[in-house]
Design a protein that fits this description.
Length: about 325
């Protein structure tokens, strides 16, 4: 019998993984379900690659490279060093340790396992106590519409290093994709204490999840507090291309824009002390606002922030 989730976190990218880590060390991890973006997933060199799922798994297992900000700690690159001279694609780095999870996931899926089943298998092997689930077992692909044309996410993000000017986003396959039923069950549970929208990129990480009709509907109907942690601090993104995307889309780079973006979905937002003057305008949107030190510099900060938010919510 699976444990009942009393907390759900929507996570993608490094920021989402960091906050999920903090939650997992603040509350009973068995009561936490982390729903993860899979719009970044793709097949490369015949391997099934799920970057956000792996980032969350590595981070919760304390295997993440905190210096580089992605991938596994103590990584080596012998595979890539051998691949490039053979004419193989070297634009997407696959570390030697990282390869293990991609190879095994590919094997598991070729033997009939779903993405969720493969993820649960890895989480168990890595000693992760909370549930980690892909947003869907169906294929959803984030496409970035740019001045250089429509680009698949990894092409835009890694191969072209986010340089093309973004014009919009398409979440290919989302309209017909089924959200994972355990996520919907948790969101619809009367015992749910809180839903967290992690400090992830609203368009590249959270957007694909909310593009799933059933998932967005469950979020809208969720009776528990719905708390957004702003990924924008002091007019800049903590990490990644969020600020660049906002400028290109003519959106003010401010937590106020994040508040407006999620106003329909959220009941509360967490912003940094440097943005304290924005509290009142956000409250006028109907949001409860926590102003605090929202920057997660290290693992201790992740736990501190999560604990402060949970305490503030009374959850």
């Amino acid at each position: 019998m699976k444990p009942e989730a009393t907390y759900v976190a929507l996570a993608g990218g490094v920021g989402g993984a960091k906050f999920a880590y903090g939650l997992s060390r603040t509350i009973d991890p068995a009561a936490l379900l982390v729903a993860v973006n899979t719009g970044d997933d793709f097949e490369h060199l015949g391997l099934s690659i799920s970057p956000d799922l792996d980032t969350v798994c590595y981070t919760l297992a304390e295997l993440d490279d905190t210096e580089r900000g992605w991938g596994r700690a103590d990584e080596t690159w012998n595979f890539m060093d051998a691949l490039a001279p053979l004419g193989g694609p070297s634009w997407f780095n696959l570390g030697d340790r990282d390869l293990a999870i991609h190879v095994l996931r590919t094997q598991l899926r070729s033997n009939g396992a779903t993405l969720a089943e493969a993820t649960k298998y890895f989480a168990g092997k890595l000693g992760i106590a909370c549930r980690i689930l892909p947003m869907s077992d169906d294929r959803v692909a984030t496409i970035v519409q740019t001045d250089a044309g429509a680009l698949a996410f990894q092409d835009y993000f890694v191969r072209q290093q986010c340089k093309p000017v973004a014009r919009g986003f398409v979440y290919e396959g989302a309209a017909n994709a089924a959200a994972h039923p355990e996520i919907l069950e948790a969101l619809e549970s009367p015992t749910l204490k809180a839903l967290f929208i992690c400090p992830s990129n609203p368009w590249l990480s959270v957007g694909p999840m909310l593009a799933l009709p059933a998932l967005k509907r469950s979020v809208l109907q969720c009776k528990a507090p719905r708390v957004v942690i702003s990924p924008i601090i002091g007019g800049e993104a903590v990490k990644g291309p969020a600020a660049k995307l906002m400028r290109e889309l003519n959106i003010e780079v401010s937590p106020s824009s994040i508040a407006r973006h999620y106003a329909e979905l959220a009941t509360a937002i967490v912003i940094d002390n440097v943005d304290a003057d924005l509290r009142r305008p956000m409250e006028r949107l109907g949001l409860n606002v926590l102003v605090t030190d929202a920057l997660m510099r290290d693992r201790q900060d992740r736990v501190r922030l999560a604990a402060e938010i949970v305490k503030w919510m009374g959850a």
